[in-house]
Design brief:
The structure is a homodimer.
Chain A (H helix, E strand, L loop, with lengths): L2 H11 L3 E5 L16 H13 L5 E4 L1 H5 L2 H18 L4 E8 L3 H14 L4 E4 L5 H8 L5 E7 L5 H4 L3 E2 L2 E2 H9 L8 E5 L7 H7 L5 E3 L9 H8 L6 E5 L1 H4 L7 H21 L1
Parallel strand pairs in A: 1-2, 1-10, 2-3, 3-4, 4-5, 5-8, 8-9, 9-10
Antiparallel strand pairs in A: 6-7
């Protein structure tokens, strides 16, 4: 998918919401545990109920790997279901991968070819030759961890290198990599005051923004400082939407929560 | 496994060799492709031929994920085979994971509980609350990416923060984390001159050292500057050993390459 197609979808749906599919068998409605594949059954219901309110889904790989083969199977079924039934949806493998050259190519093949995701999240620590293998894939996007929404972000990301914080160095350096136009960046919503400087470095790139909702980020502030002329934002919400209820009506409850955010986004887009 | 048990194994086998199981179906002997599970068949033959010459095996997750369900199944069989048949061997899931709190716990469960690896490699970029969930597991080890052996290591890892390089900050900061005694560190062999300073910060920790062999690192120099009184080094070699030959005698060829390194290690340990 191209970023133009993503922006078109945003304008049409009046939404730049991404829903995180962090499926925890201890948290999903109990009646689903009788299904042959509870993880996929949960995802399918959530997707069917919310696909018109969001533009992207983001399965978090940690939650699938924790269930071994069963989890990997559920992931395969989920991405296949999305690609076949809702091909307009932008898909993100939240995998936070990153390794040396040849290994990164293998990871890229796993997510871009075998599973056919539109994008994958990647860690920057190992530098250029760990990220460029992902960037080599046409019409695929690499979402680089930049400034995350957790407390540990202050351990290294905000430390000053040559007069500017590490995360700004990551942004600047990444622009020099081959096919850097296929980059997007993870920037946490909990740090809205940083968006102004980030937009000076990457005015056009899409930013994937976690931390709205459960982690307390402020949607208005993020949009004020982070939005560009193509919107340029994907706001992720996971638990606050998918675990809105654990009753038989969990999918409707999730849709309600998603709609609340979508309506707020529609207002922002119209203003 | 405790680090004492690892050191005991090193003394007994006169080896601190780790063999990387980076299984690429394009590179393994052609006759194995007729097997029901060619990846596992390859691993089993390599392990049976080399287990007395090394103390650790390190499957690189990228190579298994690239084959989807088939790859994940082969990984499960490989770790189970190692744990049942060679329980003295130290096992490393080279996964380079790292995510926020709850997600890191899920990754830790995947590798430490579901697959029962002794250790997993983790990226430091997201800081304390992305690594401590791994450190919470008793008798398990978290191997933090510190100074890697690729060219991209110079993009961020060696940049100066508050008067010292980022990778030294990673070492210092990681020592303040809960259960930091369960940490080990990845330090590339291609940068032997850095080992002296690294040993000043983490004198007792085990260092996992890639880059000997295919990447040109020097075993003698690494040992001179990196070894401590408990040896404290695991030297990894992957392709140079496992792809020594693509004939029917690939396992014997791999054992020969492994023995060459083991003999050099025995000499160093005796000196």
């Amino acid at each position: 998918m191209t970023t133009q197609q993503l922006t078109d979808q945003i304008r049409k749906k009046k939404s730049f919401l991404c829903i995180g599919l962090d499926v925890d068998l201890d948290k999903i409605p109990k009646h689903l545990l009788n299904e042959e594949d509870p993880i996929f059954a949960f995802n399918k219901a959530i997707i069917d109920a919310t696909h018109h309110l969001c533009v992207a889904y983001k399965p978090n790989l940690a939650f699938y790997e924790a269930y071994g083969l069963k989890g990997w199977k559920a992931l395969e079924k989920t991405i296949m279901y999305l690609n076949v039934k809702y091909p307009e949806i932008f898909t993100i493998a939240d995998a936070k991968r990153g390794d040396i050259g040849n290994s990164s190519t293998m990871y890229a093949k796993a997510f871009f070819e075998d599973l056919d995701f539109d994008s994958v999240t990647v860690a920057p620590y190992m530098g250029k030759d760990s990220v460029e293998p992902f960037l080599a894939f046409k019409n695929k996007h690499t979402i680089l961890l930049t400034l995350t929404s957790n407390a540990g972000a202050f351990d290294f990301q905000t430390k000053t290198v040559d007069g500017r914080p590490v995360y700004e160095q990551v942004l600047e350096t990444s622009k020099t990599w081959e096919n850097s136009s296929r980059l997007m960046y993870v920037v946490g919503a909990t740090k809205a005051e940083y968006f102004t400087d980030i937009r000076k470095i990457v005015p056009k790139a899409f930013l994937l923004v976690p931390g709205v909702g459960a982690q307390g980020g402020n949607l208005q502030a993020v949009c004020k400082y982070g939005m560009n002329e193509n919107v340029g934002l994907l706001i992720n919400s996971s638990r606050a939407i998918i675990y809105a209820s654990d009753t038989a009506y969990f999918d409707e409850a999730a849709a309600q929560k998603a709609e609340n955010l979508q309506l707020e986004m529609a207002k922002i887009l119209a203003s």
